[in-house]
Amino acid sequence: MAQVKFTPNLRRYFPDLCDCAVEAATVADIISAVNQRWTGLGDYIIDERGCLRKHVNIFVGDQLLKDKVALSDSVAAETRVIIVQALSGG
Amino acid sequence: MGDKILVGTRKGLLILARDGGEWRIDSAHFEAIPVVYAMHDRRTGTLWASLDHGHWGGKLQRSHDGGASWQEVEAPKYPEGAKCPPDFTTPATTSYIWIIEPGGADEPNRLYVGTEPGGLFVSGDGGDSFQLNESLWNDPGNSQWFGGGRDYPGICAIQIDPRDSRRITVGISVGGVYVSEDGGKSWQVRNRGLYADYLPEHDAEVGQDPHIVLASPSNPDVLWQQNHCGIFRSSDAGRQWQDISDPEGPAGFGFALALDAQDENVAWVAPAVSAEYRVPVERALVICRSEDGGQSWQSLRKGLPQQHCYDLVFRHGLDAQGDSLAFGTTAGNFYVSDDRGDSWRCLVNNLAVVYSVRYM
Question: Are B289 and B297 in contact (CB under 8 A)?
Answer without folding.
Answer: yes
